[in-house]
Amino acid sequence: MTTLLINIKELIQVREASIKKVSGKEMSILPTIKNAFLLLENDTIIDFGSMDDVPSSIDNIIDCTGKMILPTWCDSHTHIVYAGNREQEFVDRINGLTYEEIANNGGGILNSAKKLQETSEEELYKQSAVRLEEVMKLGTGAVEIKSGYGLTVDAELKMLRVIKKLRENYKLPIKATFLGAHAFPAEYKNNKEGYINLIINEMLPKIAEENLAEFIDAFCETGYFSVEDTDRILEAGKKYELTPKVHVNQFTTIGGVQVSVKHNALSVDHLEVMNTEDIEALKGTQTMPVALPSCSYFLSIPFTPAREIMNAGLPLALATDFNPGSTPSGNMNFVVATACIKMKMTPEEAINAATINGAYAMNLSDEVGSITKGKKANFIVTKEILSYGAIPYNFGSVLIDSVFINGKAI
Ligand code: NIG
Ligand code: FE
Which residues bind N-formimidoyl-L-glutamate (predicted)? Predict the structure, then answer.
């Protein structure tokens, strides 16, 4: 079926040629066409341009007068599959406990792991599907989802099977990441080696056998997985062709960026605490730095130094980190707004970071992330707005009229 969208006030993130990512100064350029049309054939973008050149004799026409169109958000870092919530910890933090103190008292990731282990696969799927549908309505059209709240062989497999089922039942691209190295289970507190061996010798072969993940992750952080642990785990993942995407520099800088770069990581995520060596280590690499501003906001920790990263000529992507502990929100509109408000990114930089660079951080640059011929027809139609700057400016407002996935409004 051919569908023609006409009178688009501004068609945003238009790229004639498919590009992989934008870096440094290029991030401030967001190509658009005013008074535009967009032509779809089934699930694919086949043409776009000025209304002066609009094609004729197409039956299925959608009038977008006053509205804008941009590619759907590419959320390259989430933990959408989890059981229950951690609202009590939220209240504990309001009352003065820190994230670290809560984790040290047996809360945090271990609390979520306990809940998930006790939840059936069906129930876990149900809860996760609700979250996925919510974020799709908020404009997310491609998403990465991690395991890491299982922490046993069975529960990690359960999480990854749920991700697989979501991929089968929903039309947006979904990428799976194995994050067995998220925290050490209590029973391995004094036998960290034992848990790493479990990851390498038992979890990884089973995951590979069922083809349940494309990426591998580790929480490389003081009190969690050391640089040496991370090195071993990423090396083990290589045997199964799992590409690294790594949690680094959330609270401390211990060499997580360097070990990730050594393993040609697709992305390094969090980066709230960055020194000059960390930024230097990323230069000349293919590794995408990913900032998670909603996490900084929710935990009241520093925001990723976006300007320093971009001034070094590096690219930057934005993602939600949707999870029950540090970021119980999967709203990419809020992420884009917070990046502008708190990280001083311009609307152009933030939209590039949340679309084409997010796609890169999932190995999806050829499919989504820009309005380009041949890419998937995954896009957001806004309400009537004065300019695209309204998306971050009117933070908290829902400016989405409809979301198209594979050429169909959801
Ligand atoms: O990315 N930092 C590690 N993992 C998650 C949060 C884990 C949790 O508190 O449940 C994150 O922020
Ligand atoms: Fe995370």
Answer: 149, 323, 325
What global pTM score does this model have? 0.97
Q: Are 178 and 110 in contact (CB under 8 A)?
A: no
The per-residue b/e assignment along 178-215, b for 16 or more CB within 10 angstroms, e otherwise, is bbbbbbbbeebeeeeeebbebbbeebbeebbeeebbbb
Q: Residue 247: CB within 6 Å of ligand 1?
A: yes
CB 9 within 8 A of CB 342: no
CA of 23 relative to ligand 2 center, distance in Å? 23
The residue segments making up the domain with residue 405 are 2-71+370-409
Q: Kindly state if the Cβ of 323 falls inside 6 Å of ligand 1.
A: yes
Same domain, 354 and 374: no
Cα–Cα dist 120/225, whole Å: 28
What is the best residue among 76, 79, 116, 248 to mutate for testing ligand 1's pocket, by most ligand atoms within 8 Å of CB? 79
Atom 1 of ligand 1: nearest residue by CA position: 321
pLDDT in tens, 223-254: 999 999 999 999 999 999 999 999 999 999 99
At 251, the amino acid letter reads F
Domain match, 87 and 191 both: yes
